[in-house]
Amino acid sequence: MKKSFLSLKWQAVLSVSFILVLGVGLITYFGKNNLEQTYVNQRDRVFQDRQKAVAGALQAMQLQLLQLAGHMQGLAGATEEGVGSADALRRTLEYNWDQLNFEWDVDAMVLYNTVGSVIDAWGGGVPAQALSAQWVAEANRVEAPVTEIWCDRSCWQTVSVPVFLNTSTVGVLSLTRSLAGAVLQFHDATLADVGILVPRRAGAAEPLESMWPLGHWQHDLVALTGAPLTYNVLEQMSSGLPIAELARARAIQVWENRHYEISLIPLGQTSDAKGARMVVLEDVSADVGRLQSTLAGFFLAAIAILLLAEAVLLWLLWLPMVRLQVVAKALPLLAQSNRDMTLNLTQLRGPRLIRNEIHDLFDAAILLSRKLERLDLTVKSRTKGLKRRSRELLEERNFVTTLLNNVHVVILTQDRHRRLRLLNTEGQRLTGVAKNGLQHVRFTDYIEDDQRGEIERGIEALFAGTASQFHHESDFISDSGKRLHMDWYHSHLPNTNAEDSLVLSVGLDLTARKIAERNLAWLADHDPLTELFNRRRFQTEFAQALKKYDRFKQPGALVFFDVDQFKTVNDASGHPAGDRLLCEIAVKLAHAVRDTDTLARLGGDEFAVLMEQTNRDGAIALANKLCELISDTEVIGNKTLHRITISVGIALYPEHGESVDELMANADFAMYKSKAESNARSNWHLYSADAPERYELQKRVDWKARIKDALDDGRLLLHYQPILDVSGNCISHYESLVRMVDERGELVPPGMFIQIAEKTGLIHEIDRYVVNMAVAALDSFRRQGRDITLSVNLSAKAIANSDFVATIEGLVKAYNIDRSHLIFELTETSAVEDIVTAAEVIGRCCKLGYKFALDDFGVGFASWFYLRRLPVDYVKIDGSFVRHLAKNFEDRLFVKAINDVAQGLGKKTIAEFVEDEIALELLTKFGVDYAQGYFIGKPQPSLLPSDQKLAGIAPAEVMTELNTQ
């Protein structure tokens, strides 16, 4: 059976035509509706405006009548004093009637007494008896004006006003005006014809000659403008449209090819208006004509667009479709290797001025023909290539097999029954299963019993198709019994036969990594040197112990201690000796404490013991035991024997705190108290919450805040103390001493805040602040013509700071100061705390041109070894040996020995605390280079006058003392 055929061009034309007709029709339809609705809305606004205009006109008439009635009452009261009230008003009305009638268009005026009887009436347009007695009674009752519209073969505006003279009521004055005037005003204002439509009462007489009857509506027209044309239009409409429908909506009547819009506006809401309406008739032919012409333009434009679009579409499709038919006939011939069609297609492609898809189709057909020729040749070459590829695939299979058998992961396949179908060499090695024994081995046989069920379900989900991959970690037991921790990835290998489908499993041996992870987890909680808990783990255990106390109310204690000589052992005998000391202490601790106690090395030489379920006596007993055990500890390094002591601090909970931080802080404070009590032997101190220790702790906190505020507010300043050149008997240099100005403006000596700054960590900021002030002072003195040298005392932590040298260099370059004018001063104790770092930093600074002094020499370690190791330029003999030099023979021996050794090492000596002339004479005799003290000069906020300097004196030295005076 031959299938029906319809050309593509006609399908396109018909389809597009349908869409165009539908689209243009919808646009035209909605445009027509929009125009009509716009016209209706415009007429609605006009109608509403006219309703408001009618209401406003009626209200204005009412107001005017009320004002006239009030005016008449006022005239009667002002001119008729002493005469009866009714007669006075009547004569006033009589006197003014003509003016009211001719000038104010009052048609009738009636005066009623209190009971509603007519006293007098003026005007013949409306008989007094025709007016409603109810209005008069209502006005008397409410003693307020009553306004109504009254219609009877015509319509009037009536106002009934109570009349008052003095304080007595005379009656009611009614004023009546015809609405004909309002009709004429409305006509003049709107240019629309208007009339009053009055219902015809049953049994009423024939209409007056001045009235226009509308029998179909049972109404009569009065005061109609534009008659007789307007009357003819209304009469024709009344014959075809009930008045009730016209009252609900406006209507248009065609008369003599003209369109008239007719609308009704009610004149009143009371029964006396008797349904009277104002009828408005307006010629809207021009508006209707414009609307109809616009709609006609819409329809014509739509038809024109439709026809033009159809013509353009047909023109665009006709020739391309002809060419497409040619290509359609040629393609089967090309498939039959008829290459002659290529020439025909080339000739029929047509001009290429503007290309389109048909040209592309012709080119594609020609290209296809040429490609078919090449494909014939390619098929032969591909046959040879397939043979070559088969050999390559064989080589690839051999490569994959080799790869599977040499990778260090287990690769296997298993069937639905978990039997192994393939196992690589690594898998055979781990499982111990030979290749020829795979059919008797199940994968899950090597899995632990408690994990087997979950793994069975996961692999079964792969076979069922509900999962694409399955991953798990599990212990794998080999045939030799070795337990391995394996990470397995399973995926389904699809097969057309569901029964023959397999699961590919790849396993990675994680045994070594798991062991390493366990080691890392141990290191996270332990100190690797002593194998005790570290600070983090100790704080965790401490927090758990405090939670136990909250539940069971069993008190405990924290025993905290450090090794007094640990720094000395490290520096003198090396870090290996220090490590041996820490390990030996850890071993002794483990034997000294209970099994329930928690031991930890918190860092450096600090250890802690957490004792749960103990009291004060138990904690003290352990502290005594530790002091005895550690006191027996001796360490030998570099042929030096070190005897060890410890300082122990004890804090009880909950007596001394309820949080980990608070208890550790209190134990640390107690440890420092024990260290202050004795450094010669092991000692312990129990934290006390009594007033003295609380005061000391609070004092430290308060002073920290005060120091911080002073740094922020810039309340640190320098005082300068002169230093004498003994041999030249002249001022050689100055030492600057830091002072703090408190909140009241008083000076605070450094001894009151430097130690607290060292303990609270603020000493770093003070170091930087003082160095900055000293360099700035050098710059200021230089601008004053005073070329001097400044020496700045530094704390032990200052030179340990990695950016110390960079900071000093930045300041010197910023102020362009000569480096030789700065001398940095270190105390003997701070210098030997880390002698390696101190020697390195001092050496670097000396190479740059700075100078160094070793302060307070003799009260610390007094080690000549340290003096030889440190490349300092000056040695300052501590003032405790100089103050009583004249009285104490041993001090004289010691000062002379220090001076001789220091000078023998090429260093200058400075004696501190020179307070009398005898001491200065002895120092001169001993050959000391410089002297400093109150006998030479007290610290002052400024330098001595420049005229006290003698020729040849070396530049003065300003030494910023942080921890004395």
From TrEMBL:
GO MF, one annotated term: catalytic activity
Entry's transmembrane regions: 12-31, 295-319
Which segments constitute the EAL domain? Answer: 700-953
Q: Does the keyword Transmembrane helix apply?
A: yes
The alphabetical list of record keywords is:
Membrane, Transmembrane, Transmembrane helix
Keyword rRNA-binding belongs to the record: no
Q: Which domain of life is it from?
A: Bacteria
Positions of the GGDEF domain: 554-689
Tell me which cofactor or cofactors this protein depends on. Answer: Mg(2+)
Q: Pfam families from the xrefs? A: dCache_3 (PF14827), EAL (PF00563), GGDEF (PF00990), PAS_4 (PF08448)
| PANTHER family hit by this protein | BIOFILM ARCHITECTURE MAINTENANCE PROTEIN MBAA, DIGUANYLATE CYCLASE DGCP
Q: What is this protein called?
A: EAL domain-containing protein
